[in-house]
Amino acid sequence: MSATDILREDHRQIHRLDKIIVRCHTELSAGRDIPLNDITRIVRVLEEFLDTIHYSREEDSYFPCVASYDHLRREIRVLLIEHEFSRRVAAQLRKHLRRWHDGEDAREPVARYLRTYSIYLSDHMKKEEEFFDRAEAETLSREEEYEMYEQFRSVMATSKKLDEMLAEIGYLESRPWAR
Ligand SMILES: [Fe+2]
Ligand SMILES: [Fe+2]
Fold first, then answer.
1. Ligand with the closest atom to the CA of 9
2. Is the pTM of this model over 0.90?
3. pLDDT for 9-53, tens place per residue?
4. Cα 79 to chain centroid, rounded
5. Ligand nearest to the CA of 86
6. Are 63 and 140 in contact (CB under 8 A)?
């Protein structure tokens, strides 16, 4: 296993989440109800799995390591801008969910931002997987791959967060509306 493989594995889990998001916004747009609590749990996974765990692996370790070769810098800048975009979309989702929770009808913006998020995810991950292939083939040494892999694993070992997040994805997949 290498650091790049760990990021690819994160993406496999994020693809599972993307399917849930698509179900969710499709159902909402068709006027069917989904428990607000379930939608809130989706947004929590966006914040705590994507942002806190996965983006931090990319932004704090992987991208800087690739950039240290003075290679693929333009590609990295684009990927970072896209991360910022997704953070803004997640913040909008939070805001409208809170309004909905407080009794206003926020079905339309919630469905719309979920759809936006899903489009971002497909596009970003496709781009990034091509980036991983290039970083792996053109820059990262075996030692660097191994060092970052160990670092990702040691953070994982001290935190139950990743397991908790994967369990959340499993829970959401099991919900009647998501099947
Ligand atoms: Fe990314
Ligand atoms: Fe990624």
1. 2
2. yes
3. 999 999 999 999 999 999 999 999 999 999 999 999 999 999 999
4. 13
5. 1
6. no
* Domain region containing 68: 3-178
The domain that contains 153 carries what CATH number?
1.20.120.520
Distance 161 CA to ligand 2 centre (A): 17
Cα 63 to averaged position of ligand 1 atoms, centre (Å): 10
Q: Separation of 163 CA from ligand 1 center, angstroms?
A: 20
**How many domains is the chain built from?**
1
For residue 153 the two structure tokens come to: 């694993």
